[in-house]
Design a protein that fits this description.
Layout lengths: L4 H42 L25 H10 L15 H14 L16 H10 L14 E2 L2 E2 L13 H5 L6 E6 L2 E10 L4 E5 L6 E5 L4 E6 L13 H14 L1
Antiparallel strand pairs: 1-2, 3-4, 3-7, 4-5, 5-6
Helix pairs in contact: 1-3, 2-3, 4-6
């Protein structure tokens, strides 16, 4: 092969292409993180202490915003136009456009829609914990993994709040109680549901009969909620062996 200038130039481009692509992805991620951080600063100065709590927690006059399962469209609508009949005003005309956009991205990040990087290094996992990670994270597109309802390190869907306490053993994992899952009746059908939010113009909840659960938003008058549903966490663990669940528990303990 003759290494003339043109050949060397083409070869250099081929070598550098992956590097350039990674750099562009890194720059986009860094830009997104800056926007989210800016939104967090604006939120802390404008919303925290007046209605909402710090870091998206519940405040004296408003509910929690973090890990609520809000979708992007609902967040944009609420931030820009407010919620009629409540203290939540529309911020679209009250603060600069870039500021409201940053707040929207921040609230999205609180609900797992915007993945922001973490400076913490990934923990070194044992072979069993690595297997647990593969079983937990829905990286292959299968609709049977834990990450269809749980989110860890920005991976997964935050249907439920973050896992605060890891069960002591497999039996404890299988028998987790689900007190917040109630019976919902909509269009003549009764099914287990996990309520996300109930505001004046819209009630949002997850339909727990399918995997992953479907987020629904309807008029409050269209749906009624009853007693605690018979739905159990064990119903979505039937495909996992005890060895599988043991590996998942080891993974959860490693990343907590």
């Amino acid at each position: 092969m003759t290494w003339n200038k043109r050949t060397i130039a083409v070869f250099a481009v081929l070598l550098l292409a992956p590097v350039i692509a990674c750099a562009k992805a890194g720059n986009a991620q860094a830009a997104q993180e800056r926007i989210v951080k800016r939104g967090a600063t604006i939120f802390a100065a404008t919303c925290t202490g007046y209605c909402h709590g710090a870091n998206g927690t519940a405040g004296s006059g408003a509910p929690a915003l973090a890990a609520r399962g809000f979708d992007g469209e609902y967040i944009v609508k609420t931030v820009m136009y407010g919620v009629p009949g409540t203290a939540m005003v529309g911020w679209g005309q009250r603060i600069p456009k870039d500021d409201s956009a940053a707040v929207i991205e921040y609230v999205k990040s609180l609900n797992g829609i915007v993945a922001i990087g973490s400076s913490a290094p990934r923990p070194v996992l044992s072979a069993t914990a690595e297997r647990g990670h593969a079983l937990f994270i829905d990286s292959g597109g299968e609709l049977t993994h834990c990450s269809n309802c749980h989110q860890i390190n920005n991976s997964g869907i935050a249907v439920t709040p973050p896992i605060a306490t890891v069960p002591a053993d497999v039996a404890g994992l299988r028998s987790l109680s689900t007190p917040k899952v109630v019976n919902a009746t909509l269009d003549g059908r009764t099914f287990p549901a996990l309520v996300v939010s109930q505001v004046r113009d819209q009630t949002k909840f997850y339909d727990m009969t399918v995997v992953p659960p479907v987020l629904m938003g309807v008029s409050p008058a269209a749906v009624t909620f009853g007693d605690h549903a018979s739905w159990q966490h064990s119903s979505v663990l039937a495909t996992y062996s005890d060895a599988d669940l043991g590996a998942i528990l080891e993974y959860l303990r490693a990343v907590q």
